[in-house]
Write a structure and sequence with these properties.
Ribosomal Protein L13p, Chain: A; four-stranded parallel β-sheet
């Protein structure tokens, strides 16, 4: 039996919309990462960028379970000496919920060129409004 290998020229991309309201942040990020990689397709090939476009709305209404709001931190470095910055997720979700979702999805994608390319197909919005209606996205339920 031969193995099917997807050609990069023959990839058909669809648009999906995910509503994160009332759903855990991590579960939503897992579903988005799988769609961005193309793992839901029969023609999935690991070394070919065959994923779809994903729109995530209502990121500010996503929930973090347990005590993650107070005990989980996002750390980044400014590049200067002593420039380590930390912000807990209660503050991050209140001010930049779309960035928290983007960081969660980015952490679930591979750390190579395929992951970088897949992340360009992700659109994240705080509220229910988005400006990608012309692409006619399908609602993805999970």
């Amino acid at each position: 039996m031969s193995t099917f290998l997807q050609k990069p020229e023959t990839v058909e991309r669809k648009w999906y919309i995910i509503d994160a309201a009332g759903k855990p942040l991590g579960r939503t990020a897992v579903v988005a990462a799988d769609l961005l990689r193309g793992k839901n397709k029969v023609t999935f090939t690991p070394n070919v960028d065959c994923g779809d476009h994903v729109i995530i709305i209502n990121c500010d209404k996503a929930v973090l379970t347990g005590s993650k709001l107070d005990n989980k931190f996002h750390h980044h470095h400014t590049g200067w000496i002593g420039g380590m910055k930390s912000v807990n997720y209660r503050t991050l979700m209140a001010t930049k919920a779309d960035k928290a979702m983007m960081l969660a999805v980015k952490g679930m994608l591979p750390g190579n060129k395929l992951g970088d390319k897949a992340l360009t197909r992700l659109r994240v919005y705080k509220g229910a409004e988005h400006n990608n209606a012309a692409q006619k996205p399908e609602v993805f339920e999970f």
